[in-house]
Automatic annotation (TrEMBL):
Residue ranges of domain ABC transporter in the record: 7-231
Keywords: Antibiotic resistance, ATP-binding, Nucleotide-binding, Transport
Taxonomic classification: Bacteria, Bacillati, Actinomycetota, Actinomycetes, Micrococcales
Membrane topology term: Peripheral membrane protein
CDD domains: ABC_DR_subfamily_A (cd03230)
Coiled coil: none
Organism this protein belongs to: Nesterenkonia lutea
GO MF annotations, alphabetized: ATP binding
Subcellular location(s) per record: Cell membrane
Protein name in UniProt: ABC-2 type transport system ATP-binding protein
SUPFAM superfamilies the record matches: P-loop containing nucleoside triphosphate hydrolases
Length: 294
């Protein structure tokens, strides 16, 4: 493990009686990365994160964060922030009191009014948690995670319940934190967010990694596509294709640029019109679906 490794997981196992939830999981997260931990329902993501965050002991294996044992709260809590799916704040506390409490419990130093401004809750500072809307509570969750600008931030389904503008605002804040050197671990069901933002992704299924790598590395494991419709009198295609039930032609390819050039050159030379032409690489959600079939 080098000095730039923020999270190191070696052969992590988590058992619940006879159920093996996490199986020999090994991975690391480097300083400044946005690492997305994704998986199918019941894949073991939550158990993995609970161990990394120090909430649960592992059955076996070794985990360190920021060079420390995650269960050493005194050592790690001042340096990391956690945004849970549901933080369970006291309903009677105000937004300002909630942030002040989190600061005291974690040892992270900041100005609550500054953080409320960052997440757009300045006008809700004295409002009780019970009176906040669902989206406002989610922004408060985010505020508690970024309080003190910690080195390591866990974001568990951060944009659930947020409108489009609030999502954009949240990611703008994350981008600024990353510019300052923060490391982000993301879990989300919005795969497009992971595809757009993650430096690396780990895809879990049934307790283990099925794939891990950059978005490009993952999407290149499946062919890209070119699809279109043709007139009935069109000449024979220069590439092998399949006909879908809707009458569209589909070409699957691992050489998207080359095959698209071949197809377009053929269409030009034969004066053939490609109707409703669509082409692109495999999306992350296609890769996600594929891990359940392997």
């Amino acid at each position: 493990m080098n000095s730039d490794t923020v999270i190191n997981v070696e052969r992590l196992n988590v058992n619940y009686d006879d159920f093996h939830a996490v199986k020999d999981l090994t991975f690391d997260v480097q300083r400044g990365e946005l690492y997305a931990l994704l998986g199918t329902n019941g894949a073991g993501k939550t158990s993995t994160l609970e161990v990394i965050e120090g909430h649960r002991a592992s059955t076996s294996g070794k985990v360190t964060i920021l060079g420390e044992d995650p269960r050493d709260r005194k050592a790690v809590r001042p340096r990391m922030g956690i945004m849970l799916q549901d933080s369970g704040f006291s309903a009677d506390l105000s937004a300002m009191e909630t942030l002040t409490l989190i600061g005291g419990l974690t040892g992270r130093k900041d100005h609550p009014d500054r953080v409320l401004d960052v997440v757009g809750l300045t006008n809700k500072a004295e409002t009780r948690v019970s009176a906040l809307s669902g989206g406002e509570k989610r922004r408060l969750d985010f505020a508690t995670a970024i309080y003190g600008s910690p080195e390591l931030i866990f974001l568990d389904e951060p944009t659930t319940g947020l409108d489009v503008a609030s999502r954009d605002d949240l990611w703008d804040v994350v981008d600024r934190l990353r510019e300052d050197g923060a490391t982000i671990v993301l879990t989300t069901h919005y795969l497009e967010e992971a595809q757009q933002r993650a430096d690396r992704i780990g895809l879990m299924h049934e307790g283990a990694f099925r794939m891990q790598g950059t978005v490009t590395e993952l999407t290149q494991t499946l062919p890209g596509h070119i699809s279109f419709t043709l007139n009935d009198d069109a000449p024979a295609l220069p590439l092998e294709s399949a006909l879908s039930g809707s009458g569209r032609r589909l070409i699957e390819t691992h050489g998207l640029q080359e095959d698209l050039y071949t197809l377009l050159s053929w269409a030009e030379s034969t004066s053939t019109e490609l109707h409703d032409l669509d082409a692109g690489p495999t999306r992350l959600d296609d890769v996600f679906r594929s891990i359940t079939r392997n």
